[in-house]
Amino acid sequence: MLPPRLPLVLDSRRITSFDGTELCVHATRAPFEGAPVIVVANGLGGSQNAWRAQIDYLGDRYRFLTWDYRGLYGSRRPSPDVPEAYAIEHHARDLAAVIAADGARCPSLWGWSMGVQVVLEALRTQRGSFANLVLINGTQGRPLEALSPLPGVKVVLPTVVDLVGRMHGVAGEMARRAASQPEAVGWLKRIGLLGEALDDAVFAELAAGFGDLDMDAFFRNLRALGQHDAADVLGTVDVPALVVAGDRDVFTPIAAAQELARRIPTAELLVIRGGTHYASVEFPELVSLRIEKFFRDHGF
């Protein structure tokens, strides 16, 4: 039996973003002076633990930098706390504040799920600031419309999200109960939301903090995510880009990744057979090796 993994070691601190929102920023320690930096935009509800495998593999050559989205985990809710304050445009400006406070120069910019839209929005206003892009399990916008091929669902789903968001107290209690149940991983695998390749202990580590999320802030972010579209940015991308997708991802279907790769002039595409929305966690060695090759090919 293998011993449990040691906790991920990060330096965490608080910064103030452009509108006064207090953000919690996390960084690995530089393996050497002047080490290149990888800036990571998380998925909605995800934390830095989602990148544990990539940090373990690449951490001897790169420094990782990420932050908690406004209202989630260690970051405060904005003031005034209005729906507009959770817009993807605001998250992109938070990203700029994180980089400025850190002093990182021309980093690699990664996004997973919601983070892909944050990355693309950042590229719109911060062009020339990044060395390359890694876009994992995401789309350029309006992801709620891509969740199901059934007719009419894309019209109804935003209303359903809004209704559930108003019941955030109930949703929070359900999340806490699910996160505390060891058998929850098995349920998610059986219904296809997680792949069989995902290590149960690794997912338990990811889900450990989900039950403590501020679910009202979570749904405010989710509604803002559903309203955002960066399709017009794709054709203007002028840095190397790697698009990673799972062919069993029900949240951002493979067609969304294929469209990203077709419309970004510099894109390369990796499709992971059997991968779900958690492809980089289910197949960490494959994703890490492909990113390593991508960096080597493009001189990062």
Question: What report would you give on this structure?
Answer:
This protein has helices at residues 52-58, 88-102, 114-125, 153-166, 168-179, 184-190, 200-207, 215-226, 231-234, 254-263, 279-282, 284-297, and strands at residues 11-16, 22-27, 37-41, 63-67, 108-112, 132-136, 241-246, 267-272. It is built from 12 helices and 8 strands. Helices cover 40% and strands 15% of the residues. It is globular and about 45 Å long. The chain starts with 10 loop residues before the first strand and ends with a helix. Helix 1 (52-58) packs across helix 12, helix 2 packs across helix 3 (114-125) and helix 4 (153-166) packs antiparallel against helix 8. Helix 10 links the parallel strand 7 (241-246) and strand 8 (267-272). It has an 8-stranded mixed sheet, sandwiched between helices. By secondary structure, it is of the alpha/beta class. It has a single domain, classed as Alpha/Beta hydrolase fold, catalytic domain (Rossmann fold), CATH 3.40.50.
Topology readout:
Blueprint: E1 11-16, E2 22-27, E3 37-41, H1 52-58, E4 63-67, H2 88-102, E5 108-112, H3 114-125, E6 132-136, H4 153-166, H5 168-179, H6 184-190, H7 200-207, H8 215-226, H9 231-234, E7 241-246, H10 254-263, E8 267-272, H11 279-282, H12 284-297
